[in-house]
Amino acid sequence: MSAGTVTPSRCHIDLAALQRNFARLERVAQPGALMPVIKSDAYGHGLLPVARALAQAGARRFAVGTVDEGVALRRAGFSQEIVPLLGCLSEDWRAAAAHTLTPLIADFEDMDRAAACSHHDRLFRVALKWDTGMNRLGFSLEDMPDVVERLRLTPGIAPVLAISHMACADMPEKIAFSREQTECFATISGALRAVFPDIACSLANSAAMLALPKSRFDVCRPGIALYGGNPLADTVWAKRGAGLEWVMSVSAPVVRTRLVRAGRSVSYGQMFIAPKDMTVAVAAAGYASGVAHTLSNRMDVLIDGHRAPQTGKICMGLLMADVSAIPGARAGDTAWILGGNAAPGVSPVTAFEMARALGTIPYEILCRMGSMNPRVYD
Ligand SMILES: *Cc1c(COP(=O)(O)O)cnc(C)c1O
């Protein structure tokens, strides 16, 4: 999205915070062991700027979503190993091979397609995808003898990575299931290593790498934690993800403030009636810039470092907030929808808080805000 087109609200991306999160997570895993997950436009933070910042911080691999995202990285000059997590659709195979991506092989059809793109003089590096409990994509442990045999017969394909995905790593109450997945993957990893000694094994997402050391294997794939979300925040394991910093914040200009008399309503439908004389700020963000209408009367924004309760229905491009307790608030101020500098004792609004109010997860908030607002890189 180009700046200044649809909405005056802005998504601010703090790349230095991203790099600090990367360094912190690398210390949890081991040097060189991270494969940052930058799928879906880096969770709304912008594929290329995020990849650049992470490469600078030392990333040697990237997990993207689509083959197109991988090709975009290659075209921008990235030489890291790139794994498109969504797998290849039929027309993607040649692009993956041509741009030396490391595509997922999740079934025997994939193996045939990869074989058709491989050359004897140039190995096609691939990642084997295993199902250990998601029941989504990947081979099962029972497929192992066939997988190994087929790979033996296809010398053009080099399996360099084995991947599986945790279903419940952010749920302490499901630790038995997480252990089952980890043990299953350990068996898979052992069997593969016996045949391909150099294969790297990767199971852990953010929650798993923070909470379950045995899930770390060779390569960890953090996503949400890189962007500052502690996936364990609401659990008894919260401390294991402490210290991460949010990378995204969202601002909207306050376009005016006005006095609303006691008993008068604000915005559509008279959902909010002023209980007393109050000062209301009008800020230029709304559901067209990602602030869900469902949040009407149910969220705060941060103005002048203080929380202002949002009042009345959220409009397409505007929202109102009660600034009666923030005497300095005036047109030209910034209303922070997410993040911003809070006064001592005040906490900024986080993607977790917004997600809870909406009955969703912070991932969705980041994707939504990042794709619906022009991004600026601080
Ligand atoms: C999205 C994704 C991740 C990252 O998950 P987080 O919970 O954001 O850390 C890792 N692996 C796979 C396969 C994914 O799809």
UniProtKB/TrEMBL annotation:
UniProt cofactor(s): pyridoxal 5'-phosphate
Superkingdom assignment: Bacteria
GO cellular component labels: cytosol
Annotated positions of the N6-(pyridoxal phosphate)lysine modification: K39
UniProt-annotated catalytic positions: K39 (proton acceptor), Y268 (proton acceptor)
Reactions catalysed: L-alanine = D-alanine
Binding-site residues, substrate: R136, M316
Biological process, per Gene Ontology: D-alanine biosynthetic process
EC number: 5.1.1.1
Keywords attached to this entry: Isomerase, Pyridoxal phosphate
Alanine racemase C-terminal domain sequence ranges: 247-378
One GO molecular-function entry: pyridoxal phosphate binding
SUPFAM superfamilies: Alanine racemase C-terminal domain-like, PLP-binding barrel
Keyword Isomerase set for record: yes
Pathway(s) where this gene product acts: Amino-acid biosynthesis; D-alanine biosynthesis; D-alanine from L-alanine: step 1/1
Function: Catalyzes the interconversion of L-alanine and D-alanine. May also act on other amino acids.
Family: Belongs to the alanine racemase family.
NCBIfam families recorded: alr
Identification of the protein by name: Alanine racemase
Taxonomy of the source species: Bacteria, Pseudomonadati, Thermodesulfobacteriota, Desulfovibrionia, Desulfovibrionales
Primary gene name: alr
